[in-house]
Every structure is written in structure tokens, then in C-alpha cells.
Write a structure and sequence with these properties.
218 residues, globular, binds pyridoxal-5'-phosphate
């Protein structure tokens, strides 16, 4: 079995264990730092949803891949600088990391301009970490209201728990906030904790290392 099919199977088994349908959970295969040659076999296995965290890198790898696989769905899962909004709206299909008013305004304007109204997630900084982007939990409700006023299509919330914390309380908090906002989608869980996230209601898990192996940052 390939690492990819193992991840798929673990999602299906965990979903079944807690009475959920495997099809209710979307695997976002996080291919950042991996090459087109590494991505192709996963595409050939049937995977169509991918996550990248940098606009330029994603553009280089996925412009051609999207022509070849028209139903490929590309998620932006990293912080978006406002000067890259134009390229991001043109390339990506889902923006998971709306993390400031300034970005929300720029995205709303650019989506109108391009007539591409992409589904968006609000990134919530559930651990209130100063070095991390995202909206702190107590401001999420008012931030979501502002995004909706701007006309952004907010479909859910995403979070990246602090590395040294148990993830479960962060996932539970994200779910609670989504419920208060009547939002259906929850992007939470990575290689180390996606089964817990599925148990706690994730609709999207973002898995890189468990599919593609370690990233080489050197
Ligand atoms: C890199 C990354 C992931 C994937 O992490 P792995 O531990 O390799 O599965 C998921 N979400 C975000 C936001 C990331 O930047």
C-alpha cells in the first residue's frame, strides 16, 4: 500500500468508527516543497484536492497540472501577502487563510474584478500565538460578520494548533465557533493528528508528510 492509500484508509476507518461518512471528509494533499514528479503519482491515484502555502511555488507547479487535470482543486493554506492577491485569486480554487481585514477587503475586491468568487475559510489562531497569523477566537464572530458584509463567500474555519499543545481542545474550539457562525466546513488536522480531527468533526484534513514524506528545507 502506498502512503497515500494508507492515509485515505485511515480517514475512512476513523470516520466509520465515529459514525461519519468517509465522503464527508476531504483530504487536502499538502504538496508544498514537493516536486511535480512527486505530485503526479498521487494525482494518478485519484487525488484531486491539493494544498500549497506559497503563491509563486504553486503557480510554477500547478499551472500545467491544472490544464492536464481540469477537476483539480487547489487550496491556499498559507498566509497570503496582499500584493499576491491577484495571482492567488486567478490560480487557487479555495482560500483557507483569510486572516486580516485588509486581506479580506483585497480578496473581495479582486474576486469581483475577476468574477471568481472562491470559497474562503477564516484562519483562527486558536492558541492566540503572537507569532502566528489568524484571527483570535474572541474576534472570530465579528470578523466573520465583516467578511460577509464584504461579500466574501465564507464556508468554514481553519486552524493550526500550537505545536506543543494537545490538538483536541483547539479542534473542539474551532468546531464550537463554526457552529455559532452556522458554518459547515472545518479544516483541521495534519499528518500527526488528522484522526483526532476527524473524530472532532473535521470536514477537511490537510496532510503533507504522511503522503509525500519529509520536506527538504535545505
Ligand atoms: C505544511 C502544512 C500542513 C501539512 O503538514 P504535515 O505535518 O506535513 O501534514 C498542513 N497545514 C498547513 C497550514 C501547512 O502549512
Amino acid at each position: 500500500m502506498t502512503p497515500y492509500s494508507q492515509v485515505k484508509e485511515q480517514i475512512a476507518a476513523t470516520a466509520a468508527d465515529c459514525g461519519r461518512k468517509p465522503s464527508d471528509i476531504t483530504l487536502v494533499a499538502v504538496s508544498k516543497m514537493h516536486t511535480v514528479d512527486e505530485i503526479l503519482p498521487v494525482l494518478e491515484s485519484g487525488q484531486r484536492v491539493f494544498g500549497e502555502n506559497r503563491v509563486q511555488e504553486a503557480k510554477e507547479k500547478f499551472t500545467i497540472l491544472k490544464e492536464k487535470y481540469p477537476n483539480l482543486e487547489l487550496h491556499l493554506i498559507g498566509h497570503l501577502q496582499t500584493n499576491k492577491v491577484k495571482d492567488a485569486v486567478a490560480l487557487f480554487d479555495v482560500i483557507e487563510t483569510v486572516d486580516s481585514i485588509e486581506l479580506a477587503e483585497k480578496l473581495a475586491a479582486e474576486m469581483k474584478k475577476q468574477n471568481r468568487f472562491l470559497p474562503c475559510f477564516i484562519e483562527v489562531n486558536t492558541g492566540s500565538e503572537v507569532q502566528k497569523s489568524g484571527i483570535v477566537s474572541r474576534e472570530t464572530l465579528s470578523f466573520a460578520a465583516k467578511c460577509r458584509e464584504l461579500g466574501l463567500n465564507i464556508v468554514g474555519l481553519m486552524c493550526i494548533p500550537p505545536v506543543d499543545d494537545e490538538p483536541a481542545p483547539h479542534f473542539a474550539l474551532l468546531k464550537k465557533l463554526a457552529k455559532q457562525l452556522n458554518l459547515k466546513e472545518l479544516s483541521m488536522g495534519m499528518s500527526n493528528d488528522f484522526p483526532i480531527a476527524v473524530q472532532l468533526g473535521a470536514t477537511h484534513v490537510r496532510v503533507g508528510t504522511a503522503i509525500f514524506g519529509q520536506r527538504n528545507y535545505s
